[in-house]
Design goal:
Layout: E1 9-10, E2 14-18, H1 24-31, H2 50-62, E3 66-73, E4 79-89, E5 94-102, H3 111-126, E6 131-137, H4 141-150, E7 153-163, E8 169-178, H5 182-194
Parallel strand pairs: 5-6
Antiparallel strand pairs: 1-2, 2-3, 3-4, 4-5, 6-8, 7-8
Helix pairs in contact: 3-5
Amino acid sequence: MTRIEPLTLRGPLVTLEPLRHGHHDELLDAVRDGEPWKLWYTAVPEPRQMRAEIDRRLQLQGQGAMLPFVARRNADSVVLGMTTYMDIDPTMPRLEIGSTWNRASVSGTGTNVDSKLLLLRHAFEVLGCPAVEFRTHWMNMPSRAAIERLGAKLDGVLRSHRRMADGSLRDTCVYSIIASEWPQVRAGLEHRLSRHLGSAGKPSR
């Protein structure tokens, strides 16, 4: 795999589009829905930090280490949040799906399932990754549960791995899905997504 260039991935519920500076105001609106930056075990940017966070992600994109996306709901074009391919190793190739946050109000609507299906399908079926990683805080139980529902397996825990904004040390749970598991994981995600779609493959109302 050579350097991953910005691209757009479209599913039935969401479109993942390359992050731009012009997304700033829409992302401010999204992050205020649920105020996820107030959860001590997350690293979600608060509104006053959003511009710097966009700059940081785009800088990492320029270095080839990250490919940042904005998730947009197809039904009304509302921006839901951010996600990325990160820690990209083109020589394997291998990458992590992370730095993800979404509006609290879209939890359980299938948009995150659609987003993960798009990212995983592209990683395994287009980029040819033998494995895809997910990492989260040991104490972030909602994130850990969501990763495990994908079908990812826990590889291990990195103790005192990162320092959080409040100065505390984070124990990092490392999960992965390997290529041989992808067909079963894909079937599970497609089944979950189907529950949010009508018979014609359109979002149910």
